[in-house]
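Could someone model zinc ion with this protein?
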Amino acid sequence: MELDSLYQEVILEHYKKPSHKGLTPNPTAQVHHVNPSCGDEVTLNIFLDGENVRDINWEGVGCSISQASTSIMTELMIGKNVTDAFAVVENFTGLMQSKGTQSGDEEILEDAVAFAGVSKFPARIKCALLGWMAFKDAAAQGLTVNTMSGGEK
Ligand code: ZN
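Reply:
Sure, complex below.
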């Protein structure tokens, strides 16, 4: 697999020093997602204030792409409202499905554009998307929890 060397560095940096790694208690929702084809796993906590993503933290094992992508995703999502966060997930998913034809919108995806080259490698796309799908699942569950508890804002 050949990726741009600057991008490799971004990925390696996040793999070695992941952001927001380490679970804390009492999340709004917690999910566990696995990518059996590679052996990647992520457990992700989301903390919502109403529809705002107050915090995310996670634990995971697996390849550098899955772990670095989850780390970068947390930095992007914390502080966003869920609607905006889902739009970013959509954008990243589109990039991953681009088969190497897109370089990614840095305004929206920031460091996550480092994974653009991964879209040329079908076997690795699930690695890159693992944390993002976990986030989407956790946020959806978190919103349901909030609604059931009276939709506190
Ligand atoms: Zn992987």
